[in-house]
Each structure stands twice: as structure tokens, then as C-alpha cells.
Backbone:
């Protein structure tokens, strides 16, 4: 009594956008690395390091979206949808590593900052910002529909702010000659990376731990189900997420004996599925219909 799970993931339609942003990111990465070596700018190198993590993350996102489209098998009945979540988790870990490297390098430079070629630093920062803005526009819609695409979007957003930090630092050095602006900007970039990485990892953990999806009130869901004509009680109610945009629910539903005798519970099933799909956006649901006296035989039920 459920739905077929062999559907495409929400991020599949965004694969061309991911590919475009990946190509754009690789191009800017090469330019920023070359500019960082020429100018001696740590902030520019930090932004390039973030770009490298973006490249890695976007590549993983593309692979995950492709793998997730494979049809399920008897061994993996939900297909490979969770590959997107694993990719997002690895993406978060890469961001944390970049953050640590940037902080250590910046602290070492604060005491004796080296000379930085600020005009070239400024030019590279402007180029990076322009590319990031294009990437944000391309990925904006997908970020609302897929955790995997959201991870890529957040990385590009962080890069955009990082590019702004590079631009500001370059301008400060050009105007005042204060070379320490470069490692300070690097620390600012690291401060932007950290909360985004932790937030992404927290969302991934929620999915892997099969937590109730955020924004879904389990008690409200239970009340809706109990209001269905013929339903006496609901127990063993569980809602979790397979991947972004794919919540799944299972429940034991105690049904009036007269309803079961009349049509086998088909009317109740139709009503419950419609209720969950319309009010709670849960398309994948499994119900175990039980007569009123069946609960006495279940010794390990959950709320």
C-alpha cells in the first residue's frame, strides 16, 4: 500500500546548469591561482582555494545527480538517491578543510605581511565576482529544490562574498599601503566559509539520521490523519527524507471494522494519500491498515 519510488530527483533537471557553472568556476579558478602567484595575495589564494572546493563540489554534484537517476534494484529499492546527500556531506567537509588552511596561513602572515601587487589583485577579484554572480543566477532556482544544488549554490555565494573581500582588500592596499589588509581579508573569507559548511553538514546529518523533515509538524500530521472518516487511531508514524524533495512516510492506521468490511479500506487509503500529498507534500506513503482489536497484539509500537 504505497507508491513507486523510482522517480527522478528534483536536481536532475538542473544538471545542465551545474555543468555550466562548473566550467565557469574552473576557468576563474585557473585565473585566480595565476593571479595569486603573481601578486602574492593570500586573500586571492584563499578565494582560489574556495573556488577549488567549488569545483570539487560541483563535480560531485553532477556525478551524484547522474548516479541518482539509475533505476532502483532489489538491493537498493529507493535507487541511488542518497548519493546526492553523500556528495553534499563530502562537500561540507572540503569547505571545513579549506577554512582551516586559510586561517592558519592568515595568522602566520599578520605579523609580517608580504608585499602584494594590488592592481592585479583587484582585477582578479572583479573577474571572480562577475563569474560568481552569473553562477548564482544560474543555480538560484535549483537551490530551492535540491540539497545537493543548494550546497553548490551556497559555495558560489560564499565565493561572491569572498571576491568582494578581495576587492576591498586590494583597494585598501592601493589607497593606504596597509599590506595586512590581505591576511585580514583571508580571515574574513574563512569566517564566511565556516557557518555555511557547518549548516550544510547539519542538514546532511538530518537526512542520514532520518530526522523528521524541517517544517513538517508530526503532531499536526497525526491529527489530520485521525480526522479521516473511518480512522480510529494512528501509531508507529514515521516521516523521513530519502533525498532533497523526497519525504517518505509510514504509519499504522487503525480503521473501523465496518469500513474495512465495506470496501477493504480503499476509501480510507485514497483519503489519506490525498491528504498527505495536498497538505504536507508527502507523495511517498505506506499505510498498514489494522482492525480495532489488532493493537492488542502489537507489543513494540511507537507513538
Residues:
Amino acid at each position: 500500500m504505497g507508491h513507486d519510488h523510482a522517480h527522478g530527483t528534483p536536481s536532475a533537471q538542473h544538471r545542465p546548469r551545474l555543468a555550466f557553472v562548473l566550467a565557469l568556476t574552473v576557468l576563474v579558478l585557473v585565473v585566480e591561482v595565476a593571479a595569486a602567484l603573481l601578486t602574492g595575495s593570500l586573500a586571492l589564494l584563499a578565494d582560489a582555494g574556495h573556488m577549488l572546493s567549488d569545483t570539487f563540489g560541483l563535480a560531485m554534484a553532477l556525478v551524484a545527480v547522474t548516479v541518482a537517476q539509475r533505476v532502483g534494484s532489489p538491493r537498493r529499492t529507493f535507487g541511488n538517491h542518497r548519493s546526492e546527500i553523500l556528495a553534499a556531506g563530502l562537500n561540507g567537509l572540503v569547505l571545513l578543510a579549506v577554512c582551516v588552511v586559510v586561517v592558519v596561513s592568515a595568522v602566520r602572515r599578520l605579523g609580517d605581511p608580504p608585499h602584494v601587487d594590488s592592481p592585479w589583485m583587484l582585477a582578479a577579484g572583479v573577474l571572480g565576482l562577475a563569474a560568481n554572480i552569473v553562477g548564482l543566477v544560474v543555480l538560484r532556482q535549483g537551490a530551492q529544490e535540491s540539497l545537493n544544488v543548494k550546497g553548490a549554490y551556497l559555495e558560489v555565494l560564499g565565493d561572491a562574498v569572498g571576491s568582494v573581500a578581495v576587492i576591498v582588500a586590494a583597494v585598501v592596499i592601493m589607497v593606504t599601503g596597509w599590506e595586512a589588509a590581505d591576511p585580514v581579508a583571508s580571515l574574513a573569507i574563512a569566517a564566511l566559509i565556516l557557518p555555511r559548511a557547518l549548516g550544510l553538514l547539519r542538514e546532511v546529518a538530518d537526512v542520514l539520521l532520518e530526522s523528521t523533515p524541517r517544517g513538517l509538524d508530526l503532531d499536526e500530521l497525526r491529527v489530520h490523519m485521525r480526522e479521516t472518516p473511518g480512522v480510529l487511531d494512528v501509531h508507529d508514524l514515521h516521516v523521513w527524507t530519502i533525498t532533497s524533495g523526497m519525504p517518505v512516510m509510514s504509519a499504522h492506521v487503525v480503521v473501523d471494522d465496518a469500513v474495512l468490511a465495506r470496501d477493504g479500506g480503499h476509501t480510507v487509503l485514497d483519503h489519506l494519500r490525498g491528504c498527505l500529498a495536498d497538505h504536507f507534500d508527502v507523495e511517498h506513503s505506506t499505510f498498514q491498515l489494522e482492525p480495532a482489536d489488532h493493537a492488542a497484539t502489537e507489543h513494540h509500537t511507537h507513538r
Summary: The radius of gyration is 25 Å. DSSP finds nine helices and three strands in the chain. The chain has two domains: 10-208, 218-297.
